[in-house]
Design a protein that fits this description.
This protein has about 325 residues and is an alpha+beta fold. Helix content is about 20%, strand content about 35%.
Length: about 325
Amino acid sequence: MEDYYKILGLERDATSDQIKKAYRNLAKTHHPDVGGNEEEFKKISTAYEVLSDEQKRANYDNGGNNSFDPFTGGGFGFNPFANQQVRGRDIKIDLTLTLEEIYRGVNKKIKFNHSVGCGTCSGTGGKDAMCDGCNGQGVITQTVNTPMGRMMNQRMCGKCRGSGRIIIDPCKTCNGVGAVIKTDSITIDIPQGVHGGHAFLIKGGGDYVKNGPSGDLYLVINELNTPTLYRQGNDIIKKINLPYVDFILGNEYILETFDGKIKINIPELSNMGDNLRIKGKGFKNKDLVGDMIILLDLTLPKQITEQEKELLQQIKNLK
């Protein structure tokens, strides 16, 4: 489901005036009549349509899809929102690591912003009272005529958003939201060999919300690969450039690895694209250990001496 608040660049406690202002500002830039992207403008319009309507916004904030059918509410006494619990927003942070950090394992300290319960009002938002829109029920009961006769169904109260309580004396610190933004930090131990895309879950590390559990924090690993050094499963692929003479005659080569320098032998009469495998020098992932695979690439000289030309011509004549 789209994050309508993010589309409009708003916080979840935005007022109706802030929602209207954000929509107008974005419409000036993204409306097709002024050269804007039509698909982007559709997203902005949909977000505004939902968040500017009190009932649709309440349904959206509580996990609904804003296509609520009043005839699916059931009969008298059924509250379709009774078991729906408001939950704080999850937070996702991308954590980019070098291949060396992944090879060794590393501790990372991450700073992030999230909402926490307001200390002044203990997360309540201030003094509250029973909602007069639903008499504290959290839902509004309606009678509708259907082909099967008159039926009673319920919808969430837009005034209290299903809680049955409304703030009558808002906390001056959090303006009645019950939450404030705080910068926190967390230190996480990244094990050796972790794969890109792996997500570490920190329960309750997301945003706080009144009358419900906080969201979670997800740290998602990204691998920093390069054209000459990259990962393939648990293997490390390293490309090295050699002069053409080394391909023909062979040579010793000092190779940089994450464990230090090692000496390898380039076989004579090697071909461009050949590879050499060094066992056990790849990523260590639990009980699995990969290899380092060396790809041989050719480096041609920018210029050669007259003597080199003569020698190469002799070789050419011999052939």
